[in-house]
Specification:
homodimer; about 350 residues; alpha/beta; 434 Repressor (Amino-terminal Domain); Rossmann fold; six-stranded parallel β-sheet; six-stranded mixed β-sheet; 13 helices; 12 strands; about 45% helix; DNA-binding
DNA sequence: TATCTTTACGGGCACGTGCCCGTAAATTCT
DNA sequence: AGAATTTACGGGCACGTGCCCGTAAAGATA
């Protein structure tokens, strides 16, 4: 089992074009110093042979190191959600390290806009050829995108999207559809005459996301002409006490709530409240495979979790940049993750 | 951005040990021709430096081609299920081709034991260093495993497992749990006093799989002490006419069937029957993201499909062999795929 | 002791690409 | 026309590893 020894690659092209490999190389990397005539001739041969450069040799010979920055929220006490994308980033890193690609992860505090800004500034000061970023704050991200455009640095949005900023790619959920699926699951066994409660717990960040999810959720009922009575509540503090206070009030006003839909991963806080107040008959659905949520899934307090393979997201985000920067292959602008349904029965095999 | 020019790898080891790179190479590949003394010295340095060979250079320099065979059923009119694993295999192939790994796919007829045997024989005649195989026929697979063991060829089982044959790895679903999830989904909105029908359509192949799935299905009710009335039927012909005939009979005998569970991807045949006989009020669940099934999902005839990322399976199967043969890294013996729940609402984002 | 065999190692080319450096030839400038 | 500059290209080393071949030194045999 030997490789075929037919002279391959650049050498073969050079032989056929009657030039040296250096000249072929110049054409391949469209550098200057080649006459139009020979350039054309070489390009024809390249096409004819359907030449694919040997990545091994290429990366081995190249002294360049490509640096990619990943900007994601740090794991907080509140949620360990971002552990998963981080794992994905690390997995991708390990895989492409041998190609001379270096990744550096920057963490910011999800509850602190300044931390986001300063992290971005730090990244821009560094010499990175590509950036993977979770665009948590819209205005700051816009500025960042402008800077990247100026320096021709490709960037990929992770987990939530901000359209029209010319990102290389968006990798994350289709928010509308996620809400849609949530509605389906929630009403699967719900009485028609019960009310539904939409709960949005967050400190005013990525409104855009929640809005899209809620649209999807309501869209489901619109599509089937089922005008359910839907109550909604925004809670701007994320601690248990605040959430409990607000929820107590809502449940006091609405005695006949049969189901609750939480628009993000903080569903475990609601689960905790429902359990403590002996309201576990209320169907509960939320997002993300984080430890607290899973334990309430186990206890039957949360009925379903909707997940979007966060680890896979991290992995794909880095790989998209790798494809662009190293392989120079086209990258699809939108990469929607599957909308996974996780229950008590299948969670143990769930792979982020 | 330059790579650190510190002399790396084998050369550095050689320098420290005061030998040539050839000698280090001999130690690394434990070939003969090195005295115990120097061998020990070199090994110590290797450990000290935590030397990781550069795969790029290694594969580039090596003239060896590694050949992997993949043995899977061919796509039939009956089902296009195996398209997905094939895609996965191709994807893996494209990725590792540059490392001098060559894959060849062999197809057999799922309904023809002889075709399976002869394909296996063909593979064994060829010079392959690893085999990925869908072990459809148990006895034949046992013989195959014995032959592989003799020739020290690692093999990976795909989609269904036969334990105790010392496969390098099993990549596929956890069958028991899949049945368990099916039961949960089926009964989610089922009347207590309705009967459940288990349908097994197949020509006697991989009994083992169906048995495990059914165990899981029944296990769900056992766990909750819900003694549902369960009717089961085995159908040994896979064409629509035969299935319809058998089902007509069963539904005639049992007027109060509220839900049906099909143990494999042939659920679309049942869906067709239910639709034709105006029995779409019966909940229906089955397996696999194949075209026909998806269309019945769209029509609301099939409620849920349970899927196991077949493309991912094919991909991982090849990559497991790659890990073993090229990287020489350990491979986990069991790799259970997630149990995905696919509905009308989320199927469009399902990624095999 | 002279010849043959074995052991233990070093030298060096090859893999395909990147890229620096050198230089005839062509072009432009005095 | 001669000098200076630019253009267009070739030679060749380097990347880290695999592996063939050659050879001193040690040991075995006559």
């Amino acid at each position: 089992m030997k490789k075929e020894s037919t002279s391959q690659g650049v050498k073969e092209i050079a032989r056929r074009a009657n030039v040296s490999t250096a000249t072929v190389d110049r054409v391949l990397h469209n550098r200057t110093g080649v006459s139009e005539k020979t350039k054309k001739r070489i390009n024809e041969i390249i096409k004819e042979l359907d030449y694919q450069p040997n990545l091994l040799a290429s990366r081995l010979a190249s002294k360049k190191i490509i640096s990619i920055a990943a900007v994601i929220p740090k794991v907080s006490e509140e949620t360990n959600f971002w552990e998963a994308p981080l794992r994905g980033v690390k997995r991708a890193e390990a895989e492409i390290k041998q190609y001379g690609v270096h990744t550096q992860v920057f963490f910011f505090d999800l509850n602190d806009k300044d931390s986001f800004s300063s992290t971005i500034a730090e990244v821009l000061r560094g010499d990175f050829q590509g950036v993977l970023i979770s665009p948590s704050y819209i205005e700051e991200t816009k500025k960042f995108a402008a800077q990247c455009a100026e320096r021709k640095i490709p960037f990929v949005f992770l987990d939530s999207d901000i359209p029209d900023l010319h990102s290389l790619s968006y990798i994350g959920p289709h928010l509308f559809k996620s809400g849609y699926v949530g509605a389906k699951l929630l009403t699967y066994r719900l009485d028609r005459n019960k009310k539904i409660l939409i709960i949005n717990i967050s400190k005013e960040i990525d409104n855009f996301n929640y809005q899209k999810i809620e649209e999807g959720f309501r869209g489901y009922f619109a599509d089937r002409g089922q005008p359910m009575e839907i109550v909604r509540i925004d809670i701007r503090e994320t601690d248990y006490q605040s959430v409990a206070r607000h929820l107590t009030y809502v449940f006091h006003l609405n005695k006949d709530i049969g189901a609750a839909f939480v628009t993000n991963s903080r569903v475990h806080t609601v689960a905790s409240f429902l359990k403590n107040s002996h309201r576990t008959h209320v169907s509960l659905i939320g997002f993300d495979f984080v430890t607290e949520n899973v334990s309430y899934l186990e206890n039957n307090v949360i009925d379903f979790l909707i997940c979007h393979r966060p680890e896979e997201q991290g992995y794909r985000g880095i790989m998209a940049l790798y494809q662009k920067l190293v392989v120079n292959a086209p990258v699809s602008k939108l990469s929607y993750m599957p909308i996974d349904i996780v229950t008590k029965e299948n969670y143990e095999f769930y792979q982020n």
